[in-house]
């Protein structure tokens, strides 16, 4: 392989594929970035056991000249660091049997390959029976941010580390839950995918990596197969295995009967939860929310350290305010993460009783957009359940 | 104690004193921030065994009302977090025997005191026999950045964790060394301090904390005593113990006889060292620098992984270029830290032979400013000492 490429283009390409390079993989080649040069251009690939990131620079890009076709697998971190510190000039890459030579006007570097054989990279993701959809990158990024934080971080139930992705006609829905909190959002697609598509569980980490690297402009094409998924936008492409196992049924979890619905300013509620978090130092980050006629009262207590109450006034319509104050208790850290993932200015809080899931619904004016969050309340001793109103 | 103060003022004041609050101190009170309100205003103090940071808000500041004099010691981190999350409004503070009440329009919080007795804070730093100097904050920040990184991080020789501070007539000199590298800078003061003042060793950490918090505008007054030092600028004040023990003699370390002097572009040399660092993965971060007629050649080798050579052209006068290439070897990490601390565009590299300290002198046009860096070379096996010139 021999190519010449502008440092800025090579650096940008590496930024797209580095996140997938495995840190200490079972297959040594996966610690590297694969370069493949052919008549079509230069393709960079970073891969781990679950996800593959690819970036393709086409041969008609003036930043690239392919002088000799071929491939090589280069140690990811060292290669990335080296390219980062080169000046903005042309970089000549030439792969030998054991080394890659990297040359600019002022630099010559020889780097041992991570693997002699580029074929050690797993070639095939099983993309069969695919359903294809197309979504603007802006919408996709927003949806992924809305749900991915709620997936389980523990691998105790592997399938919960994923995001459930459903296509139904022209509607795409994403759901994530770790069993205590749940995040759901759905969006109308511009192109209809036709009939009811499959349910696929995409690893949350893969999905957020893709969405974080992705630019705001343009569209992503998503191909959902039986065992794998492909997301592609321009030169950038991700392939990921899907998570197996049955995703729990999530459709009936939102309480059908609602008692109280209030509207709050998202940033004010978040600020209040952050303040109250300072004094909810126990493991459960216990926090109480009391609905009173004029406002919500957030309160937290840390035994021996102090106590806090913050009032948050309504910021829109309210209904079903109970005669006696209604208090729910919950994990403040979870509430914080939910509120941080909401882009809307205002949010509705829906309560169905102290033991029923707390519902948050972002007030979103975009047509066809829907989102809600569920948070299981914490049962608390009665003594904590009635904060005194601040004077 | 009862005061009302604008959230923004209280938050800013806390930012100045928090860095000194001890994390798990022998004296519990030191984990707190002390508030003292009196006719003069409100003073906040954070303190550890070595350093005290103080911020004073005078009573004529419209952001402050002292309603009742008194003091309290509040848990530092919780207090800081709470104030950060309050809205920009008036904050009423009222200290009881065991609790501080913090109240805004929407928030009421009671926080257990860190200590019942504010007097547990050490009262006296021994500021006797002081020499006083005055220096612009801009110059002080620059000087501290130039030297403090070179102090020892290990406490094996306690005195080397400090910065040697000398006043001689109207000149202030700072020196720091860990035994392998040394950083020196000196500056002409606007006000002459008179005769030769004392040598004091100020803990490097205290000095950089003060300099980092300090704004660019204004002046600092420095009072150097026998056992302690005080730095003060406007409302902000630091007291620190000095380090005892004899500071090693540093005056004769710079080689008197110089063979070769070359001028380089600081940022280009730093970029080259950062690039070569990628392949100097051993513990010593071994790197070679070869002086050839037209340029410097930096090279590094990582056994089994690769090798690298970067050329850096001269960027100014050179003298004493040897007929045969002259190579010195050194710790690349140390070289990087030195170069990062240099604000000047260009730097002179002075060599007195492969076994003599490498000297770096920033090219600084400010009148009266002087600075240099010394780096002890690493002795290397002959086989590494002659890089081939890149084509």
From TrEMBL, chains A, B:
Q: Which residues form the DNA polymerase III beta sliding clamp N-terminal domain?
A: 1-121
Positions of the DNA polymerase III beta sliding clamp central domain: 135-248
Q: Which GO terms describe its molecular function?
A: 3'-5' exonuclease activity; DNA binding; DNA-directed DNA polymerase activity
Q: Which Gene3D superfamilies match?
A: 3.70.10.10, DNA Polymerase III, subunit A, domain 2 (3.10.150.10)
Superkingdom classification of source? Bacteria
Matching entries from SUPFAM superfamilies are given as:
DNA clamp
GO terms, biological process: DNA strand elongation involved in DNA replication
Q: What keyword terms does UniProt attach to this protein? A: Cytoplasm, DNA replication, DNA-binding, DNA-directed DNA polymerase, Nucleotidyltransferase, Transferase
Please indicate if the UniProt record lists Glycoprotein as a keyword.
no
Q: Keyword Membrane: yes or no?
A: no
- Give the InterPro entries listed for this entry: DNA_clamp_sf (IPR046938), DNA_polIII_beta (IPR001001), DNA_polIII_beta_C (IPR022635), DNA_polIII_beta_cen (IPR022637), DNA_polIII_beta_N (IPR022634)
Q: Tell me which residues make up the DNA polymerase III beta sliding clamp C-terminal domain.
A: 255-366
Purpose:
Confers DNA tethering and processivity to DNA polymerases and other proteins. Acts as a clamp, forming a ring around DNA (a reaction catalyzed by the clamp-loading complex) which diffuses in an ATP-independent manner freely and bidirectionally along dsDNA. Initially characterized for its ability to contact the catalytic subunit of DNA polymerase III (Pol III), a complex, multichain enzyme responsible for most of the replicative synthesis in bacteria; Pol III exhibits 3'-5' exonuclease proofreading activity.
How does it associate, per the subunit comment?
Forms a ring-shaped head-to-tail homodimer around DNA.
Q: Which family does it belong to?
A: Belongs to the beta sliding clamp family.
Name of the protein: Beta sliding clamp
What is the scientific name of the source organism?
Answer: Paenibacillus mucilaginosus 3016
Q: Highest lineage ranks of the organism?
A: Bacteria, Bacillati, Bacillota, Bacilli, Bacillales
């Amino acid at each position: 392989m021999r190519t010449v490429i502008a440092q800025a283009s090579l650096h940008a390409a590496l930024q797209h594929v580095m996140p997938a390079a495995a840190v200490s993989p079972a297959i040594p080649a996966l610690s590297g970035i694969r370069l493949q040069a052919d008549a079509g251009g230069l393709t960079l690939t970073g891969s781990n056991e679950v996800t593959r990131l690819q970036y393709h620079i086409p041969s008609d890009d003036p930043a690239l000249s392919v002088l000799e076709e071929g491939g090589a697998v280069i140690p990811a971190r060292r290669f990335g660091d080296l390219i980062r510190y080169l000046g903005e000039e042309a970089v000549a890459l030439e792969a030998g049997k054991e080394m890659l030579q990297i040359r600019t006007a002022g630099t010559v570097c020889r780097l041992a390959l991570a693997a002699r054989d580029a074929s050690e990279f797993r070639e095939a993701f099983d993309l069969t029976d695919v359903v294809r959809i197309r979504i603007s990158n802006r919408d996709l990024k927003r949806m992924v941010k809305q749900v991915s934080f709620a997936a389980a971080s523990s691998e105790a139930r592997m399938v919960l580390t994923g995001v459930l992705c459903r296509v139904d006609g022209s509607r795409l829905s994403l759901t994530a839950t770790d069993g205590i909190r749940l995040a759901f959002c759905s969006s109308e697609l511009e192109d209809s995918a036709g009939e009811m598509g499959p349910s696929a569980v995409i690893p949350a980490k893969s999905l957020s990596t893709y969405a974080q690297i992705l630019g705001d402009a343009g569209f992503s094409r998503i191909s959902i197969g039986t065992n794998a998924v492909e997301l592609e936008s321009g030169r950038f492409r991700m392939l990921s295995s899907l998570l197996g196992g049955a995703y729990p049924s999530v459709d009936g979890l939102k309480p059908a009967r609602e008692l109280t619905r209030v509207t709050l300013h998202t940033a004010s509620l978040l600020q209040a939860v952050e303040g109250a978090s300072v004094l909810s130092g126990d493991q459960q980050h216990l926090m109480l929310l009391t609905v009173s006629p004029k406002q919500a009262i957030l309160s937290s207590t840390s035994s021996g350290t102090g106590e806090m109450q913050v009032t948050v006034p309504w910021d829109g319509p309210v209904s079903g305010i109970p005669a006696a104050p209604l208090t729910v208790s919950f994990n403040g850290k979870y509430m914080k993460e939910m509120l941080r993932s909401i882009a809307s200015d205002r949010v509705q809080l829906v309560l169905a009783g102290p033991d029923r899931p707390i519902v948050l619904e972002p007030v979103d004016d975009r047509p066809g957009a829907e989102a809600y969050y569920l948070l299981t309340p914490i049962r608390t001793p009665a003594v904590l359940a009635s904060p005194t109103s601040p004077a």
